[in-house]
User: Fold this.
Amino acid sequence: MNLLDFFWMFLKGSLFSTGGMGNLPFLHNDLIGLGLAQESDFVKAIAVGQLSPGPSGLWSISLGYLVYGWAGAGLALVALTLPTLLIVGVQAIYSQIEKHPMTQNFSTGLALSIIGLSFAVTASLVNASIADIGGVLIAAGAMALGLSKKAPIVVILLLSAAAGVVIYGR
Amino acid sequence: MNKPTQVKLTEIARIFFVLGLQSFGGGSSTLILIRQTCLQRGWMEEGEFVRTWALVQMAPGINLLKLTALIGHKLRGWTGLAAAMSGLLLPSALVTVLMTAGYSAVRDQPAVQAALKGLLPATIGLSLMMSLQMAHPLLKKAYAESPLRLTANLVILGSAGLLFALLNASPMAVLLGGGAAGVLLFAIVPARARTRSVPADHKDLP
Assistant:
């Protein structure tokens, strides 16, 4: 397989899907089908994507590295980035129609829905993220500290990591 | 509030660079940090941020990258977009590759496992905080309008969440449905102004 085919597989996946995991079925189909990647590569890449800083959608970069080394990672990065530029056009169109009164109600409905989604996504992650009462306490503490605006988010994240080491690190 | 043109390109790149490196614990912490940065620096107010976050779900690609692109674009046009995206992406992408290369070493570190077991619940708590904070101004406005209007708001919010959680509906479909429901419901339930203006001291905290 040449690098152009490789690049197209990753580009196609991001171009015809939304969200960080939307390209998974595309890449899974193409790369496993051609025998270029194993199931275990996908498991590893997705785990790294969740562990590493930045959007978890960067898991594709990890997969690119596993399949094709540094060149694969670089191509995956470009393939992930290019389709996101389309949003500038989408926003330009949206801002044209945004002033219409009907669009304002649409826009409010949209905002309410994204908040509903945001609650639902958070709820869907609870099982995988909170294992015991310690987890519940950390979640509640982080939320309370965040709402109090007494500590920057980074500090809260660092404190919770430290709490994890203290509670679970033995 | 900062005029968008006052933000230097190097400043944009620096802010997103630091943000990209700080956001351990997956995409939730990245989103929380981007939102906090936008609000604190006066780049966007809550309503605009929520609308932008909704809009990015409607185009292809990673949502957080599209959000970053739009913020950069708003601040300094295409060069701002490039600064924001490279600031966020380059360090995170590099760390991602390095972690892939050293995966077994990282995974088998008990301290990393333990830290992650503390980080993940925290991102849940912070995501819940963020959702509440995003909902607050909209629901407060609806509450001031009329009880029916508040109900309509809660119905849209709740159904969107349930459609996603129970029926596994695609986010884009949920959002378009929510927008359509807004057009329909808010036409039927007009904002019968109770003419109760919101007191000044009730203003949202930054």
Notes: Residues 63-101 of chain B form the longest helix (39 residues).
